[in-house]
Known about the structure:
The protein is of the alpha/beta class. It has 21 helices and seven strands.
Amino acid sequence: MMNTLPLAHLLRPESLLDFIGQENLLSQGKVLKNILESRKPVSMVFWGPPGCGKTTMALIVAKEYNLPFKIISAVTTGIPEVKKIIEKASEEFNMFEKPTLMIVDEIHRFNKAQQDAFLPHIENGTIIIVGATTENPSFSLNNALLSRVKIIVFESLSEQNIKTLIKRAGEKAGFDFEENVDNILFKYSGGDARKVLNTLEIFLNMGKFSVDKQTLSQIITGDFNISYDRNGEYHYDIISAFHKSLRGSDVDASVFWMMRMLEGGEDPLYIIRRMIRFASEDIGIADPNALIQANSCLDAVRFLGLPEGDNAMIQCAVYLALAPKSNTVYMFGKKMKEISRQYNKSKVPLHLRNAPTELMKDIGYGKEYKYAHDFENNIVKQQYLPDELHGKTWFEPKDSGFEKKAKEKYMWIRKKIN
Length: 418
């Protein structure tokens, strides 16, 4: 008789020995292994991508600690229900001196005020929290809760992990697989075990125990989603990788990360804004044309839209990656912002002030100002900074690209005007 249990339930491991993946946490000497071996319950939040085993591991933790547990989801459970669970946990704690382990799925869905409901009970030992989230806890959990839990970072399942899962599915449910099906399933899953099991569940529902490429292709056609969340962690990680690849002059990596964003539905104007910023922050006067290229890319994409405008974006990314790099303008800007705040009450020298009235002329406004165009090379020795800063310099150009010429001119001008 065919097993009617869902495949995910049938294959759910009940012990650490059966758990697939997260070797970086469970190998001897690694953080989660140490926590479990200590036999001292610790409140934790498992943070990682979908289908990597967070909730399954929470259930194993409850079993390892031999604690009563309650599973709740922040999507379907309100605070009144949470309070009832905590009241019962308090009663059991008073009777048996055992905390209740609360497995909170999608804990990030509780707002920051709701999260406060857990705090006193974690503090007094009534409950142990094991939360699961796909969102960065730094942004989704309040500081008070963060300070009371250990953040454990989970990773997507590796190719070998997924293939082990597929093999186990074959043994438990009686599947046989056509050659190379496991490779197709891994690429489709992106390291998400749930996607693999849901796909195999469809075969079961069809009464098929032979997983062939033709049927599989019909099931997963058009569903090879790019791993990207324009409002979540991937958004920040990938734009950071893009920026740093440009800075490192790696053309291939730069365009790879850019296409990951575009294929994942990112707003192209957001990417171009980052390239415009990059052109002045990381290239600057080492290649002044970089900013022109980035702005031209903006005009092209606004005019063409996508997909026609993607070539302009690729061209711009390639140009920026290959351009000589300098952060002189960026560092100079930071320094001058600091100086301007420090000397925000410094007075403008009288000779630099406008004198639109006779009174202003009489008290010295504009007196002895030297008009640069009246002098050779349009340069004249004259004080331009406030008295307390006169003679100081902060601009430190490098020898990168065009900036080397700019440096030579800067040094020549400094000698003329000081």
